Amino acid sequence: MAKINEDLLKERKKCSFNTAELTHLLDGGKDKTLERHSREHFFLDDPELRSKIPLEYLSHKEKYEEAVRKSCILFRKVQELQEAGKGGIENFREILGGQLGSAILKDGNPLTLHYVMFIPTITGQGDFEQQAEWMHKAWTCSIIGTYAQTELGHGTFIRGLETTATYDPKTEEFVLNSPTLTSYKWWPGGLGHSANFAIVVAQLYTQGKCHGIHPFIVQLRDEETHMPMKGIKIGEIGCKLGMNSTNNGYLGFENYRIPRTNLLMKNNKDGTYVKSPSSKLTYGTMIFVRVVLVQDCASYMKKAVTIATRYSAVRHQSEMKPNCPEPQIIDYVTQQYKLFPYIAMSFAFQYSASWLWDIYNNVTGELESGQLENLPELHALACCLKAVGTADCAAGVETLRLACGGHGYMTASNLPSTYGLATAMCTYEGENTVLLLQTARYLIKIWQNKKNIQNLPTVRYLDNALFNNRSYEKSVSWILSALQQVAAAKIDLANKHINDRVRQGKAYEDAWNETSIELVAAADAHCRTFLLDIFNLTVNNFQSISPELKAVLTDLLELYAVHTAIRMTGDLLRFTNTIGKDVEALQLWLEELLAKIRPNAIGIVDSFDIRDEVLGSALGAYDGNVYERLFAEAQKSPLNHEPVNKSFGLYLKPFLKNNL
Ligand SMILES: CCCCC/C=C\C/C=C\C/C=C\C/C=C\C/C=C\CCCCC(=O)SCCNC(=O)CCNC(=O)[C@H](O)C(C)(C)COP(=O)(O)OP(=O)(O)OC[C@H]1O[C@@H](n2cnc3c(N)ncnc32)[C@H](O)[C@@H]1OP(=O)(O)O
Ligand SMILES: Cc1cc2nc3c(=O)[nH]c(=O)nc-3n(C[C@H](O)[C@H](O)[C@H](O)COP(=O)(O)OP(=O)(O)OC[C@H]3O[C@@H](n4cnc5c(N)ncnc54)[C@H](O)[C@@H]3O)c2cc1C
């Protein structure tokens, strides 16, 4: 084992709590930690899953080929675990998103959509016979699928998709067509050259009538040769900001025929076209992915904040006092302000993600028995948590990269590619503004009709929050109550402005659009009250943890609360009876909390227990040997493999001669 950096050794001695206790708490128990370790060992210690050359130095094509190689091994290994009875959702969570997946495939996995959307859509939308026909092939990976919904012309407005599936009663087939350039499918992961099947979302036509969008199972490529099927035009969409191994593709159809039975029929039981009880049931896979993405936000944030916090303990810079040694940069309070709120935020997102996952499972259970009443609340919550979680995560990763100064800009820090993964989440699975407007739509409806509100756990606070008006106290409960009042006031005001505009003669839709900046802000505030509420409830409910750990979690909870409140200072002053002096008190409380967390900062990020291979960072490794690792990474540059590059003879030398 490498020698541990002296600063980190000192930091670890300062820690006031048992880091293993926090690790177990975060994992859900010691058994779960051991399970995770064994899973990490199974994947990360497999030499086949390592790359010989860092990805950054490969061409676009080579990156893809290496990603396919690794994805196949990953999937084979997941199947081995399933067969050995060691299966479970955690395996998928870890290798598809989260930490293991992004450690092994830093720039994305071209086969992810198979498990994340193809299989869930067959399960959620297929009838019994269809599941019997397709699930075995999909589970055993005899076929690899993707989810082809977005088109060149439409991603958000899916009712506007243009791909057509027209029923031909003579042959009992659907005929798929891409009538325009804008109707080409565009974006689906793995569609370019990896998948041989896809769920294709298309407008269903029977007897000249359009019945709206429906999902179909479509074969794209020959199962033996992988050549595109006749009538299928397919390829990759090209280079992106990040995720360059995910093989996002395009797809067009020319009179491409598929059997009638490939229309997913869970909601059309007798095989003839019957309108489903809610057209939104077709959107179920999107809810599922939004729910799991919130967990990924916590994972990426933990990873980035571990890297930046360890680096900040090792890095020394400037003089705080004349003639004193250069301090660790973690001792600058501005630096603490860049780091510690994101440590706290990781907890907030983990706890809310876990609540959301439970609510999701309850509601999907109800949907199976035809109960739809709780779907709108789930949809509204999943939309805002996905939007706020991914936005905070991307902004957090960028702040943490900046906190690492120049070295944070190196790919060897692993912060740039983590940002690439995080910022993509803000767009895919529903663009964030659009999702916040979905939440706002729900909140406005609730505001206009509060009859049933006490049965709706995520919004029942709105019943009386408008009049909270509590005077300032230094407590989380005061901040929560103030945030709830802000959310209620924002919803109330947006509702009033919509109504005013309608009264002035505007169409409701125009009034909505003119009020939409306020609506987005209302949804954002509502989401932040939920995040704080759940963090607070979770910490308060921990019964059997040590007082030392409880104290640390309380510090983090308070920091999250105060940080949120300070970010919303204008709203507090505007919508609650907070006054200038209270804001000053909040600021002092924030500074007090940063100082309290400072001695435990390294202990807390150590408790995240993220292996060096997962961090993938010269700046964040457990041993803190930052400079040695940066130097070693530089040696991997192909330019350093020869003393003189051929460009010298070709260009530089003649250029230098010409300038003589
Ligand atoms: C087999 C084992 C599997 C295990 C896997 C386990 C774990 C996986 C773990 C980890 C993986 C983690 C992460 C994954 C990692 C990497 C991911 C890599 C790649 C990501 C792939 C990304 C894929 C995509 O992007 S797919 C495309 C997604 N597209 C969108 O999201 C489009 C967004 N647009 C929409 O959703 C809609 O069009 C809209 C904006 C909502 C508008 O729709 P519209 O019909 O116009 O609706 P309208 O506004 O009129 O509202 C009508 C009404 O419906 C309600 N509504 C809307 N949507 C829903 C919904 N989804 N559910 C319920 N209800 C909905 C809406 O509120 C309105 O209601 P009302 O009239 O007001 O009552
Ligand atoms: C990395 C990545 C992977 C993806 N993978 C897949 C995949 O596997 N399968 C798939 O089908 N798709 C996939 N997508 C597509 C993705 O789901 C869409 O890009 C996303 O839903 C956003 O839609 P859009 O591109 O049409 O954006 P647009 O809707 O065109 O957004 C552009 C701007 O318009 C605004 N806007 C649009 N509508 C409204 C509105 N109603 N009100 C207010 N503002 C509005 C948005 O806020 C945004 O600012 C992927 C995308 C990315 C980036």
TrEMBL record:
Cofactor(s) the protein requires to work: FAD
Keywords: FAD, Fatty acid metabolism, Flavoprotein, Lipid metabolism, Oxidoreductase, Peroxisome
UniProt-annotated binding residues for FAD: 150, 189
GO cellular component terms, semicolon-separated: peroxisome
Gene3D superfamilies, alphabetized: Acyl-CoA dehydrogenase/oxidase, N-terminal domain, Butyryl-CoA Dehydrogenase, subunit A, domain 2, Butyryl-CoA Dehydrogenase, subunit A, domain 3
One Pfam family per UniProt: ACOX_C_alpha1
GO terms for biological process, alphabetical: fatty acid beta-oxidation using acyl-CoA oxidase; lipid homeostasis
Annotated localization: Peroxisome
Ranges of residues in domain Acyl-CoA oxidase C-terminal: 478-657
Coiled-coil regions listed in the entry: none
Domain Acyl-coenzyme A oxidase N-terminal: residue ranges: 18-144
Methyltransferase listed as a keyword: no
Gene Ontology molecular function terms on file: acyl-CoA oxidase activity; FAD binding; fatty acid binding
Active-site residues from the entry: 429
Main location: other
Domain Acyl-CoA oxidase C-alpha1: 283-444
Record carries keyword Oxidoreductase: yes
Pathways per UniProt: Lipid metabolism; peroxisomal fatty acid beta-oxidation
Family: Belongs to the acyl-CoA oxidase family.
PANTHER family: ELECTRON TRANSPORT OXIDOREDUCTASE, PEROXISOMAL ACYL-COENZYME A OXIDASE 1
Protein's name in the database: Acyl-coenzyme A oxidase
Organism: Brassicogethes aeneus (Rape pollen beetle)
